[in-house]
Amino acid sequence: MLDPGAAGERSGHWLQQVSGVRNAGGAHLILNACEGAEELSYGIRLKVSGDYGLFTRPEMKVERVTYDVITPSAARGILEAIHWKPAIRWIVDAIHVLEPIRFQSIRRNEVGHKAPAGKIRSAMKRGDLAGLGQLVDEDRQQRASTVLVNPAYVIEAHFEMTGKAGPDDNEGKHLDIFNRRAARGQCFHQPCLGTREFAARFELLDPASPLPAAIEDSRDLGFMLFDIDHGARGSPSMFFRARMENGVVRVPHPASAEVRR
Amino acid sequence: MTAIANRYDFALVFEVVNGNPNGDPDAGNLPRLDPETNNGLVTDVSLKRKIRNYVELAREGVDGFHIYVQEGAILNEKHREAYKALRPDDAKAAKDPKLNPRDDAEAKELTAFMCRNFFDVRTFGAVMSTGINAGQVKGPVQLGFARSVEPIWPLEISITRMAATNEAEKKKSAERDDGDGRSDNRTMGRKHIVPYGLYVAHGFISAKFAQRTGFSQSDLDLLFEALTTMFEHDRSAARGEMATRKLVVFKHENELGNAPAHTLFERVRIGRNIDGEFREIDSRLDNQPPARSFADYVVEIDRDNLPAGVEIIELL
What are its E.C. numbers (chain A) (predicted)? Predict the structure, then answer.
């Protein structure tokens, strides 16, 4: 069964008060009133790549069409696959596109329906599994996906502490855990590029060394999914106007006015 | 059942001889191709289907090993239904609620019930329509696309059938009849085959997700059993001869893993066997005859300087 959209784990509410907002890699313009000094030590740079990527556009979900570039939401999911606790929240600052943007189409047989909760409930009550199975050949949909070929990115991100942080949670600790895991290739589950069949390779980049060169390409990516606000009622989607400048997409802070709800 | 406590990454090497491992619905059921490199592809869902089918055969009717996403009907269910009248679903369920289940506790219960009873939900996960923000179970096992190690050249084989589908077709071919009486009811068909292809798929097993779904050591053994023997039970006119040739499992000492997965997969090197020598696959092989059997390939596993805490298990 295909997993529609690969949302990461739930993070806390975007707009809740955070303590000590820091803005890593603040050399670029962020149009919000984030206070706090510029401290690179809390930022990380992760190189991710794979054979294919599929960052589904929400307006084209049936015959899936990918965005040109990884969304901040998917990038956050990748970071959370390596390390996440309710005490922290990952904020993606920038995405560097390292490979030319190319597409391919793949058509697959998929299952048309999800597992109905009502049926499961009644099976539980009956204590019998009869009629619970899904017959795939009677419930088949052939759908094409337009996927990215050989995507490779550098994700620049930092994290902020959330209201759930306890007394023994501090930035240094979580940063160490993340860096240690990412450097060793450890992860909670193998991160993926949009959907789980497209596994992501990841490697931590040394903050001292220069970044790999991004592609020489600038384009307006239009309105792009920023993230899904799992903390609010009904989990609304948030969007932002994405622009790629010489291969780099700057991502606004979630609290900034650039992020539309 | 305790969940597994190690992360695993595995590389599955399988071959196809004169068959179509996975047709492309966009290309008239031609074997799937990467249009840029001509490498053959087999989708993740195709491999998962075979794993499900194998488990359905190997553990038929065993509690806890039912398959949720079935292909065709299960005889077992039929037997049971014969002497057990199905109670109708309760009215509330029929209305398909558009909101979350009553509370998180109930959603958890539903998920746990599904994981306990169905092997494929426990292994691959499932999406449950519990209304808004559907409860998703992410399974521990993640499979990528399989890709052939060399470009493949699918052949189109035309075949004939000595019968017509209907009267109209019979009339049409009778008009063309050349008088020998044999071509009367013949129809032409088409088959696509890959003469030979060696494919590699990469898979990942997360111990952390296994804890959430209760994926246990015996489930893992069953999964590996399925990966090694699933093609033996998937024979059909289209498939030709398919077989698992190698299953290399990287077992990490802890649940988060001890090394990046891609560096481990690079240890499984596949080259062409040219006069008994290992040769990298590149354009210089173009003068060599094409590979037509597994003996034309060499699979090398680099066991030197393994990262601490990683163990290579060659299951096949």
Answer: 3.1.-.-
Q: Which residues on adjacent β-strands are paired with residue A88?
A: A161
CA of A196: which chain B residue's CA is closest?
B142
Contact between chains at B114 and A115 (C-beta distance less than 8 A): yes
What residues 199-238 of chain B have any CB closer than 8 A to a CB of chain A?
Answer: 202, 204, 206, 208-209
The answer to whether residue A110 neighbours chain B at the CB level (below 8 Å) is yes
Residue A41, classed as helix, strand or coil, is helix
CATH number of the domain where residue A169 is located:
3.30.70.2660
Find out whether B93 and A119 touch, Cβ atoms under 8 Å. yes
Predicted pLDDT at B178? 59
pLDDT tier for residue B145 given thresholds of 50, 70 and 90: very high
**Structural domain that includes position A183:** 44-105+149-250
d(CA A23, CA A160): 9
pLDDT score for B180: 58
Interface contact A119-B101, CB threshold 8 A: no
**pLDDT 10s digits, B279-303:** 999 888 888 999 999 999 999 999 9
Contact with chain B for residue A31, Cβ under 8 A:
no
Confirm or reject contact between A125 and chain B (CB < 8 A).
Answer: yes
Question: How many domains are there within chain A?
Answer: 1
Gap between the Cα atoms of A156 and A146, Å rounded? 26
How long, in residues, is chain A?
A: 261
What average pLDDT does the segment A105-132 reach? 84
Min Cα separation A73/chain B (Å): 16
Close Cβ partners of B223 (under 8 Å, ≥ 6 residues apart): B51, B123, B141, B205
Coil, helix or strand for B180?
A: coil
Instruction: Determine whether the interchain pair B94/A113 forms a contact, defined as Cβ–Cβ distance below 8 Å.
Output: no
What is the spatial distance between Cα B133 and Cα B100, in angstroms, rounded to a whole number?
Answer: 8
* Burial group, residue B297, by CB count within 10 angstroms (0-12, 13-18, 19+): buried
Query: If you write DSSP's letter for every residue of A70-105 in order, what string do you get?
Result: --HHHHHHHHHHH---TTEEEEEEEEEE-S---EEE
- Integer Cα distance of A91 and A72 in angstroms: 8
Kindly compute the dihedral angle of the four CA atoms of residues A202, A208, A210, A212, in this order, to the nearest 10 degrees.
0
Residue A83 to residue A210: CA distance in whole angstroms: 24
> Which pair of structure tokens corresponds to residue A162?
């959330």
Q: Distance between CA A51 and CA B201 in Å, rounded?
A: 12
Residue A222 located in a structural domain:
yes
> Does the residue A194 lie in any domain?
yes
* A30 in a structural domain: no
